[in-house]
Amino acid sequence: MTWMEPETFEILYGGSGWLKEEGDEIIILAIESSCDETSAAVVRNGLEVLSNVVASQVELHKKYGGVVPEIASRKHLELINPVISEALHQAGVEFGELDAVAATYGPGLVGSLLVGLTAAKTLAYALQVPFIGINHIVGHIYANFISNNEIQAPVLCLTVSGGHSDLLYFEELGSYELLGSTRDDAAGEAFDKIARVLGLGYPGGPAIERISREGNPAAIDFPRPFIDEDTYDFSFSGLKTAVLNYLNSQKQRKAEINVADVAASFQQAVIDVLIAKVLKAVENYPVKSVILSGGVSANSSLREQLARRLEEYNLPLYTPELQYCTDNAAMIGSVAYYKYLKRDFSPLTLAAKANLKL
């Protein structure tokens, strides 16, 4: 192909003879940089991960107790090219073998998003292959399909991460109904905030899960917001406030605070709410499979308790491999493959959207 202007190239997206079809080998380079992980992956036909390189900034942000957006975006600039090169090297793939380039365009930190998005659009333009923008939340959902090929629709999906608590219903794969979402603090956000006040460090989710193993989840009766409400929405702001009030009350009384018990009781309150909403949907919708997605889906207590409750309904629970629970580019490449088959390509003018919704 000859060099072409962006406008001409975007016209070709509409359906050109050189685009591959289902059944052909389709290789996609995917990039994820929505927060503090710089990741690139090479994915073949949506499910075969040839490489998945993740450069984490956790140690860099630990001393601040959370992600500092400006520092994160600068670090992405340093890492993006080496991470892409390593992903191609591990996959044994050359730039010329790529059929498309994909990247997360939201939601996330806008500075971080711009780094990966700009790199992907530049590569797509230079290689004259389609560019595919991906919703980060959808990526987490599709991480399940990389790990489990036996998932059957209709599917109920619980997405739980630092910024999102969503319950979705897929009557068929490819389209969904949003049943409920967070009204304030997402579950993962609440984990991070409570971990911070307990002095457990960052990231909060894994820290709370670790210390909860030493505590009693029934030690403190924290509230379960919205657990009995006639809604599928989530709210964890009140729970977070209840934990803070408990800690302040104990300090004023100069009473001992058992951090493990507080963490375990808080974690159990979150899990109880999440499970209650899933079971409510299971009782009201025809469901054959239940899947978990998002960073909090790595929580072993959530996995074990939800799987046990779903046995009462003879329903299987599918979860991503742990490496695909946190932010990674493989999940972005999986979504991109199905968008490629639909010719659902993105213009090179696509902007980063920090508050992108499902």
**Unreliable segments of 5+ consecutive residues:** 1-6
Average pLDDT works out at 90
- By DSSP (H or I, 4+ residues per run), the number of helices equals 11
Counted up, domains total 2
Rg (C-alpha, Å): 21 Å
In N-to-C order, the SSE pattern is: HEEEHHEHEHEEEHHHHEHEH
Q: Can you identify the CATH superfamily of the largest domain?
A: ATPase, nucleotide binding domain
Which helices and strands occur, and which strands form pairs?
Elements: H1 6-12, E1 27-32, E2 37-44, E3 48-56, H2 58-62, H3 69-91, E4 100-106, H4 110-127, E5 131-135, H5 136-147, E6 155-160, E7 165-172, E8 175-180, H6 187-197, H7 204-212, H8 237-252, H9 259-284, E9 289-293, H10 300-310, E10 317-318, H11 330-341
Parallel strand pairs: 1-4, 4-5, 6-9, 9-10
Antiparallel strand pairs: 1-2, 2-3, 6-7, 7-8
Helix pairs in contact: 3-4, 5-11, 6-7, 6-8, 6-9, 7-9, 9-10
Overview of the molecule:
The protein folds into two domains: 152 residues, Nucleotidyltransferase, domain 5; 135 residues, ATPase, nucleotide binding domain (Nucleotidyltransferase, domain 5, 2-Layer Sandwich), CATH 3.30.420.40. Helix content is 42%, strand content 17%. It has eleven helices and ten strands.
Summarize the structure.
This protein is an alpha/beta fold and 358 residues long. It has helices at residues 6-12, 58-62, 69-91, 110-127, 136-147, 187-197, 204-212, 237-252, 259-284, 300-310, 330-341; strands at 27-32, 37-44, 48-56, 100-106, 131-135, 155-160, 165-172, 175-180, 289-293, 317-318. The strands form two sheets. It has a five-stranded mixed beta sheet, sandwiched between helices. A five-stranded mixed beta sheet has the order 8-7-6-9-10, sandwiched between helices.
